[in-house]
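Quick start: read one record
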Amino acid sequence: MNPMSYGIKIHLSFDQGTLLLTGPYARDWVKTFQEAAWTWDDRVGSWRCDAIHYPFVRKALHDRFSSCWDDQVPRPVRVDLTREDLPALRPEQAEALTAWIEAKCRGQIVMPTGTGKTEIALAAIARIKTATLIVAPVRDLMYQWHRRILQAFGYDAGIVGDSLYNIRPITVTTYDSAYIHMDKIGAGFDLLVFDEEHHLPGKCRREAALLSAAGKRLGLTATPERSDGLHKDLDWLIGPVVYRMPFQQAKGAALADFDVVRIPIALTPPEQTTYDQCSRAIQSFLASRRKEQPGYTWQDLCKETGSDPRARHAQKAYYLKQSIEDRASEKLRVLEDLFRLHHGQRILVFAGSNTMAIEVSKRFLLPTILSHTQKRERLALLEGFAGDRFPVLVANRVLDEGVDVPAAKVAIVIGGQASTRQAQQRLGRVLRRTGNARATLYEVVCENTKEVQRSRKRRRSDAYQRTRHYRI
């Protein structure tokens, strides 16, 4: 039956991050619409589904019932920018933007760190001119987006996060704040920009996409892949990959030419002895437990540390091993040699832990940026690094993603994870093209430890092809 025959309308509305469908014929239509998982909500007497389906639901209702339905979902406002001070896009940036627009403004742009994904997003905002929410992984990046929008458009964007809640037609936020507040603001924006989109598919953070009715979505990242495989969900949370730029294509063009130099070092005899003892303790415990319980994993061990002293002893041995790898004394000697070799150049040092970063900072009297470093101090350190007041800057992971770092052509990695994502992001910190200067990434690795395996995993990225090995 068609409600048009009786003058009865179906009503569609937004409620707490979901769509509500009401009307006497809504049930018949819901059964035929397979794209959304509709459920009946007895509390309000309506059919309900996630707001992400709004563009598809709206089109399907229009095709089926023409004007005999009522769209009560709020319409995002149009944004009139009084100034647009944007650099001309390079050919590959313009190609990426065109591909996204041709894909009906839904999709992912995958380009190496340093190739100007932010400029593409700002150009998209200027082109679409609609209410926009930019979602960043951390507060530093949120404020960085705020500064870039102010610089490009003269527009003071709203901020949701860091104890602030100021909604404006263009607003910046973090993933954590987005999924907390999206049930309230999900109908207020027509364009979502997900910076470092690989953070989105997490169990809670994905709600930043699910609870929004925005029809236009742009994802930005250099490395969308996740170890848990959830990156596959990005295709429906944001849209398919519309443009991908291989790392080797950017090398020497959008990015500087570079060398990756791996420096193997040895633990001191006492360090190696302690390291081997810890390894044997862990292996012995796991072997004994797996005899009793086949399939026993490291996660099972961690669960038992509160009740089993042997499990707690094995866990402590594991952390001691990590500490020896992170803080090997030979790493400090190699750092000193590299500082002498590159005297007068800007150098970034990436440590594997806060403890090692602080140790390097104390040993060489260098500034360090950590996750708990206050915003004002971070800005002062980055400005000092840009102005050559600080020739070297030490960090753990806080500079890995997206943060604009002043031009540097030397990076030294003395610890880190096994992920190729982290490897590419750290390499990207020194690859912003400045003239014909060649960049160098040094990777200092402890031989006869698990660091060797992590280094090999990192180098599976196409960015690490033709790695040159040196001994210093």
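The chain has 17 helices and 20 strands.
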